[in-house]
Design goal:
about 280 residues
Amino acid sequence: MFISETIQETTAYINSVKEKGNSVGFIPTMGALHEGHLSLVREAKKETGFVISSIFVNPVQFNNPDDLANYPRDIKKDIQLLESAECDFLFYPSVKEMYPEPVKDIFDFNGLDSLMEGNFRPGHFNGVATVVKRLFEIIRPNKAYFGLKDYQQLLIIHKLTKDYKLPVEIIPCPTVREKDGLAMSSRNQRLSKQERKQATLLYEVLKMVKIQSGFSTISEIKSHVDYLFHKSKDVRLEYFEIVDMYTLEPIKAWAQSKNVIACIAAWVGNVRLIDNIILFS
């Protein structure tokens, strides 16, 4: 696996790859890699001739300085994992390389960025769009792969590529879970053993919602979810929403939409986790 820390070297290398007729698959990450990331690499390997991943802990998408400071980092392990998944190239830039000037990018997502995650993490999606747009412009991939766990982010990136006519196909990939159902996340590494057990509540609740959807009313389901988290002393619900899959607008009755997803965010100790489950599509 070739590793580069500079835009100039990365661009030159990718130019040579494309000149040979290869299509390029791209997996942007912030490191602290796990099987979820590697599944994206393997999927890209099946579909494209050349796979590049990036590792960049993007400071402009963190609205909480402590979250940025505590974000797990282990580049040696990450390199080993990427090599094991047969990734061809790693782009590993510094903050100065990515942002030589102060960031002033402002994006308009027509309110898509103000709901759920956007409501609790102001500015987060503007930071995501900033780095993804720059990475797409540097790497110019044919396809880019993203997990469904970050569903709202996936919709934002779809809109970004459409609005700016970026010539990249966005490939959504299934959420990869631990044996007990917990969605794989880099932040899981920060959970204590006890917190790790408690974190399964998120997926247990989502499975319950899936079973009840269409039978119980949305109001009844939301009340039951509130009750389950209220019973848990160590897992604090931040939000639970049942929304249209394309607008992310909350629905109040099942007849309102044929494409429905349930989204959740909760704190387990000092670690914030998100998850979702598609109810109807």
